[in-house]
Structure formats: structure tokens, C-alpha cells
């Protein structure tokens, strides 16, 4: 900054001097060279990133062969790391690909972080969440809400992989990290092993009189249910931004599945050219099948089956269809931004 008066200079010196005197009282005053508290718009450190399946697949194979279930959990995961951040995939959540080999048990524990799993490849693993035991099959979403005990065991023949997403950076920022191992490696299963699914799994009908619940009582959202719903929605006029998209919902109140993170399933068909939009909050996409492209800021990610994308907050992005119909699974932190009153969205003007 160009200083053009001696009074400016004196003011800067006065602030420096004051700060030096304030230090031992644990007080400060703003200095000219401090980073600004407010910016007109978000200044974002997180980067938008494209991970290719062609890179990830050999890494996952190596991980499964060379790395034992770690003591930390224990879980065997490949973390999708954001180069703009010290830790995490986005500024709020961590996405990892978990590898479990036949016969392995990922032992029971619980944590304050909310978690979800989306099955990428393989069949035959079970997860037990607070006594409810569910088989996990390709394309299923299974929730592990905050502080629920959970363990996974794999009884299938082939290694299995799934996407884990946890709101770890929110938990860390709130200084609310709690973790507890279960006293035994595996939890006992309830007499009715899948009660939540039996009560609420239709999404449309529920036991009489239930109007609220402290947390979402439905943990598994099957691939068959979600994809049937999406194909029904494909008969509607396309969404200008997303072509065909449906969110996973809490069957009791219609809100997001978890308090901090929402999930959606999307179809992008050949010829689709989506309008651009930007919003506060971050997203991660997993390409279940097909191909297409997403323009993010001044870059274009040409994605195909198995790829991942992270979209940074307040970054313009638009989707375009490829040569085949694509299905994408999405996780975002919009529920957190909405709950705090920080959600904003801007859409590209129609030309
Ligand atoms: O499966 O319980 O990717 O606790 C990170 C932390 C998975 C899990 C992760 C976890 C888990
Ligand atoms: Fe966990």
C-alpha cells in the first residue's frame, strides 16, 4: 500500500506499538498487513480436483495386497486428498475408498463424525450399525450417523471396495472429536437384524403416529430403490443444471439423510448441456457409469466410469453429457451451510 501522509504512518506505528503492549493481556488490534477478515466473496483454498479410475484402480490393488488393516480403526483406506488443504477431500469432509478382503473384519467402534458408505465394487460384506446388520451390495448407500457403533465384515470371495465419506473437518473445527472402540471386535446383532429398513424402508409408509425422530431411523438405501426412482424421474422434463437428479431423504421429515451431509443420485444423458451455477459448500461426485464432462472454473474434467471429482465452494460448474448415459453419486455439505444460514447460490443467466 502506498502511504501518502505522515499521519498514516504514525497511525500504523501506533497500532504496532499498541499491539506489542497488548500481547501479554492476550489482546490484539488489527494491523494493516493482517489478512482481511471480510472479503467481498469467498477466498477458497480448497481446489477442485479430478481423480481418474485408471490411476486409482492399480493403487487400490496395491493397497489391498500390501497394507494390513491399520491399527487406526482398524480400516484400510485410500484417502482422496485435496492439494489445497492440509487434510481432507473438501474443506468440510473426507472421502476415502475402503478396501476389505475376504474374511476380514473391520472391528466395531463409534465416533462423533457422521459417516456414509456407497458401495463401488463387490458383494458379500455386511455392516452392523448399532445392532442393525445390512448386506452391502454395489450401488447401495448405508449411513452411520454420529456416535453409532459400527463394524464391517466381509464374507464374500473377492475384495470389496466402497466410498466412505465422513464430516471429519467439521468435527475437528468444532473441537468435538470423540472416539470409542467397542469392547468386542464385533457387535451382537439385534433379534430383528434389519428393523429400520422394515419400518421405514419404503420411504412412503411408516408405523402410525411417528412424526419425528432424533436421527434418521433408516440406514440402508438400496441401489434398486434409488435407481428405480431415478428412472421414473427421467420421464420428467430435464433439470436445467443436473438433467435428472434425486436426493436421498430422511423418510420421517423429508430432510437430508444426515445432519451435515446430503447425497444425491443423478443421470446425465448424451446431448445434455447443463447451465452453470455456483454455490457455497463443497461437493464430491463418483461416476458410477457412463462418461461426460464438467466444466469447473476455467478447467474441464472429462470423466468416465470410476472417476471422482471434488468441486470447491463458490466455483462455477456445469455438466455436459457424453457418448453414453451416465449415473453419478454425489455427496455435499449443503445441510450444514443451510443450517448455519451460510447457503448461497448464483446461476448463470440464460442467454
Ligand atoms: O469404516 O468406520 O474411511 O471410522 C474413516 C474412518 C472409514 C469406518 C473411514 C472410519 C471408517
Ligand atoms: Fe468408523
UniProtKB/TrEMBL annotation:
The keyword Oxidoreductase applies. Keywords: Dioxygenase, Oxidoreductase. Pfam families: Cupin_2 (PF07883). The keyword Oxidoreductase applies. InterPro entries: Cupin_2, GDO-like, RmlC-like_jellyroll, RmlC_Cupin_sf. It comes from the Bacteria. Residues 97-165, 265-327 form the Cupin type-2 domain. GO terms for molecular function: dioxygenase activity. CDD domains: cupin_GDO-like_C (cd06992), cupin_GDO-like_N (cd02216). This is Gentisate 1,2-dioxygenase.
Amino acid at each position: 500500500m502506498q502511504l501518502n501522509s505522515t499521519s498514516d504512518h504514525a497511525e500504523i506505528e501506533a497500532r504496532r506499538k499498541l499491539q506489542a503492549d497488548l500481547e501479554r493481556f492476550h489482546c490484539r488490534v488489527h494491523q494493516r498487513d493482517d489478512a482481511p477478515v471480510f472479503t467481498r466473496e469467498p477466498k477458497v483454498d480448497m481446489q477442485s480436483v479430478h481423480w481418474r479410475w485408471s490411476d486409482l484402480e492399480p493403487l487400490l490393488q496395491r493397497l489391498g495386497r500390501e497394507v494390513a488393516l491399520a491399527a487406526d480403526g482398524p480400516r484400510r483406506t485410500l484417502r482422496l486428498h485435496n492439494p489445497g488443504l492440509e487434510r481432507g477431500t473438501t474443506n468440510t469432509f473426507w472421502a476415502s475408498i475402503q478396501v476389505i478382503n475376504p474374511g476380514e473384519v473391520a472391528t466395531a467402534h463409534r465416533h462423533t463424525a457422521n459417516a456414509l458408505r456407497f458401495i463401488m465394487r463387490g458383494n458379500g460384506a455386511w455392516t452392523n450399525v448399532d445392532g442393525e446388520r445390512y448386506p452391502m451390495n454395489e450401488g447401495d448407500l448405508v449411513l452411520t450417523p454420529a456416535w453409532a457403533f459400527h463394524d464391517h465384515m466381509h464374507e464374500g470371495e473377492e475384495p470389496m471396495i466402497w466410498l466412505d465419506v465422513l464430516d471429519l473437518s467439521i468435527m475437528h473445527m468444532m473441537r468435538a472429536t470423540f472416539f470409542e472402540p467397542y469392547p468386542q471386535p464385533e457387535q451382537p446383532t439385534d433379534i430383528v437384524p434389519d428393523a429400520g429398513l422394515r419400518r421405514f424402508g419404503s420411504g412412503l409408509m411408516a408405523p402410525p403416529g411417528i412424526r419425528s425422530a432424533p436421527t434418521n431411523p433408516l440406514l440402508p438405501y438400496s441401489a434398486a430403490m434409488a435407481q428405480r426412482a431415478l428412472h421414473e424421474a427421467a420421464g420428467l422434463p430435464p433439470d436445467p443444471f443436473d438433467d435428472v437428479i434425486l436426493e436421498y431423504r430422511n423418510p420421517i421429515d423429508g430432510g437430508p439423510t444426515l445432519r451435515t451431509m446430503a447425497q444425491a443420485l443423478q443421470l446425465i444423458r448424451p446431448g445434455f448441456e447443463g447451465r452453470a451455477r455456483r454455490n457455497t459448500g463443497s461437493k464430491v461426485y463418483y461416476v458410477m457409469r457412463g462418461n461426460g464432462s464438467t466444466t469447473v472454473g476455467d478447467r474441464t474434467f472429462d470423466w468416465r466410469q470410476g472417476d471422482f471429482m471434488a468441486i470447491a465452494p463458490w466455483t462455477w460448474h456445469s455438466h455436459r453429457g457424453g457418448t453414453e448415459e451416465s449415473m453419478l453419486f454425489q455427496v455435499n455439505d449443503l445441510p450444514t451451510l443451510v443450517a448455519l444460514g451460510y447457503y448461497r447460490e448464483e446461476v448463470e443467466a440464460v442467454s
